[in-house]
Amino acid sequence: MPCLPERTADVPTSSASATDAAKPAASGGVQSLERAFDLLERMADAGGEVGLSELSASSGLPLPTIHRLMRTLVACGYVRQQPNRRYALGPRLIRLGESASRLLGTWARPYLARLVEETGETANMALLDGDEIVYVAQVPSKHSMRMFTEVGRRVLPHSTGVGKALLAHTPAEEVRALLARTGMPAATEKTITTPEGFLEALE
């Protein structure tokens, strides 16, 4: 389905915001695309529904720029506008997420199933995505009582065993930088909450 947003008069545009799409991003990519994906992630972090002013405050982008990007995302179905004029994540994102999850699950499932057979415990596959751990595939054990971790769940690396495993061979300075960005809030009373303690646990 083509994404052809219609111009609306909710927020005035400016010549500066109208030329944003033509500017190259610092990464060498397309700035407007990077900004659109950043807004989607900020919406997800906020619980899936936000107002334009909230997005402007968290992203630092001007309202006209955000409005233009959101209008395009609405036209494409990746965002929908609520009756209260706030914006929510749209249904087309479900298709993308399901496709990505299915691909990873198809590849990983035979290996996870073998682990379940050998250990008798639930096997999960997780990746380091940016500064977070995301669970991307799972094969449950046959036990009636078992630990349940939802595929798609995101956690901070310092608070999980899989985070320690993924960072075990990462240089100490990179681990410290990651922990400085994420912070180290306690998930339980046994969570390691200092960089020194976490690095010691990785040894």
TrEMBL record:
Residue ranges annotated as compositionally biased, kind Low complexity, are 10-27
Which residues does the UniProt record annotate as the domain IclR-ED? Answer: 92-203
Positions of the HTH iclR-type domain? 30-91
Specify where the region named Disordered lies, as residue ranges.
1-27
Which InterPro entries does the record match to this protein?
GAF-like_dom_sf, HTH_MetabolicPath_Reg, Tscrpt_reg_IclR_C, Tscrpt_reg_IclR_N, WH-like_DNA-bd_sf, WH_DNA-bd_sf
Alphabetical UniProt keywords: DNA-binding, Transcription, Transcription regulation
What GO annotations for molecular function exist for this entry? Answer: DNA binding; DNA-binding transcription factor activity
Tell me yes or no: is Transcription among this UniProt entry's keywords: yes
Q: Which GO terms describe its biological process?
A: negative regulation of DNA-templated transcription
Q: Does the keyword Transcription regulation apply?
A: yes
Question: Which Pfam families does this chain map to?
Answer: HTH_IclR, IclR_C
Q: What name appears for this protein in its UniProt entry? A: IclR-family transcriptional regulator
Q: Which organism is it from?
A: Streptomyces pristinaespiralis (strain ATCC 25486 / DSM 40338 / CBS 914.69 / JCM 4507 / KCC S-0507 / NBRC 13074 / NRRL 2958 / 5647)
